[in-house]
Design goal:
By secondary structure, the protein is α/β, with parallel strands linked by helices. The chain contains 20 helices and 18 strands. The strands form six sheets. A five-stranded mixed beta sheet has the order 2-1-3-17-6. It has a five-stranded mixed beta sheet with strand order 11-8-12-7-13, sandwiched between helices. Strands 4-5 form a two-stranded antiparallel ribbon.
Length: 441
């Protein structure tokens, strides 16, 4: 993997002059302009000012060409409009005909990995596809001022999700995929403590929903106590290493917390408000914000996930965070690559992220937009943003991992471990860990 990343970085230095211009402003000036002007001065010592200006203007013209963009269908028209506005305001990029096609994040990544040459020049994708795309040679590294832009303009989780092996490979668009707490504030008096939430729900005869047999929600316990579960892949996308320490004292604490929750009369396994009844609180995502508002009415409230207590110690729920990114396919034409970076930088900018939130509700990764009045007034997004500070970006996991997590949760829900000792729970986790490791052999 490191060799592939290094090769990509080295190839990018060939077009560093074009990229550096994109990083400094929307109307980029390239070092090539200075080079042309210097050459002219040496060969024609008496060159007049108009001639120098003409040379500069000529270099600023990035030429003509075609650029294909893939984005989710619900932002196709929005993206078309924003690119046209950008080209109208920046005529040096207007020579490129840009076609925006509706290809969702999942399909875009799969298509690019299958056929890089035939894929889009610019495409949106989910952060868990980053390693596969880098391995396939489908992403041009983001370097120089553009990399600085990514790290300074976006929240830490989103910037991290766009980075692999210390190299930035994409521009974040959103920080809006994760889970947090919706609750009825007439029932829940303190949303910061799981014990208190459960006690309030029990007292009110209400239910607390959390999907503990989901391998997406389940890590909230294990990552919360300090455990790790990630996978490394090789250049072909094969899983090579499983980094896991569930079979540990911290893992036992997490499993005990799951068991304690399942024992509550208020607990219901689930994460969808559309299938929930008599709800006091639920761990869910922004996609259910409308349903939550309708269900709770004036008592609607949101918060980051609470802490949970095991053997007298409090731990903060963690879990996975999800981000939408936009990447650029490697190009042989330095001018076209520069135009692609300028367009994507604009599409990921503060101005466009705010407009995208207002139009289609995508939660921004841009830190300034997150602090805007409109986004701060969105209780669900604000709660998620707070929770994402405690999560890790979801990477790639073998398909079998998701079924294994379900099996562990099902055993907890069935009461198989209700009376188990710490030693017996350790044996359960040793088996779980060994199975996870077997997926990378």
């Amino acid at each position: 993997m490191k060799k592939r990343v290094l090769a990509l970085i080295m190839s990018t230095t060939m077009v560093a002059a074009a990229l550096a211009g994109c990083g400094s402003s929307e109307k980029a000036e390239t070092p090539a302009a200075d080079s042309a002007a210097t050459t002219e001065t040496k060969t024609e010592a008496k060159a007049d000012a108009p001639a120098a200006d003409a040379a500069t203007e000529e270099v600023k013209d990035y030429g003509t060409g075609e650029i294909k963009v893939w984005v989710a269908e619900n932002v196709q028209t929005f993206t078309e409009t924003k690119i046209k506005e950008f080209q109208d305001a920046n005529p040096e990029y207007a020579g490129y005909a840009v076609t925006v096609e509706p290809v969702g994040e999942g399909d875009a990544a799969s298509n690019m990995i299958t056929d890089v040459a035939g894929g889009a020049d610019i495409f949106g994708f989910a952060q868990d596809q980053l390693a596969r795309l880098v391995s396939a040679g489908a992403l041009s590294p983001v370097v120089g001022d553009n990399a600085t832009f990514v790290n300074e303009q976006n929240d830490a989780g989103a910037a991290s999700a766009a980075t692999m092996a210390g190299t930035v490979f994409a521009y974040p668009l959103t920080s809006d995929n994760g889970y947090f707490l919706y609750y009825d504030k007439s029932v829940v008096t303190d949303p910061t403590s799981l014990d208190k939430i459960v006690a309030d729900c029990e007292a009110a005869g209400k239910s607390f929903y959390m999907e503990i047999n989901s391998a997406w929600y389940q890590p909230a316990f294990f990552f919360g106590t300090g455990c790790t579960l990630t996978y490394d892949t090789d250049d072909m996308g094969n899983f090579t290493t499983c980094n896991i320490d569930y079979a540990s004292d911290n893992g036992v604490k997490a499993l005990k917390a799951m068991i304690n929750l399942h024992k509550s009369s208020a607990f219901v396994n689930g994460s969808s408000l559309s299938a929930a009844t008599n709800v006091g609180a639920i761990v869910d995502g922004t996609w259910d914000s409308g349903a939550a508002k309708e269900l709770f009415g004036d008592n609607y409230a949101c918060a980051k996930l609470p802490t949970f207590n095991v053997d007298g110690t409090d731990y903060q729920f963690s879990g996975f965070g999800g981000f939408k990114l936009m990447g650029i396919k490697p190009q042989t034409d330095a001018n076209k690559l520069a135009v692609c970076h300028a367009i994507v930088k604009h599409l990921s900018s503060e101005e466009v992220q705010l407009a995208r939130y207002n139009e289609v509700g995508w939660g921004p990764s841009n830190v300034a937009v997150q602090q805007s009045d409109a986004v701060k007034a969105d209780e669900a997004l604000s709660a998620l943003a707070e929770q994402l500070a405690f999560t890790i970006p979801q990477g790639q996991y073998p398909n079998d991992y998701w079924a294994l997590g379900t099996s562990l949760g099902d055993s907890v829900i069935a009461g198989e471990y209700d009376n188990a000792s710490d030693e017996e729970l350790m044996k359960v986790l040793e088996d779980f860990q060994a199975t996870c490791q077997s997926y990378a052999q």
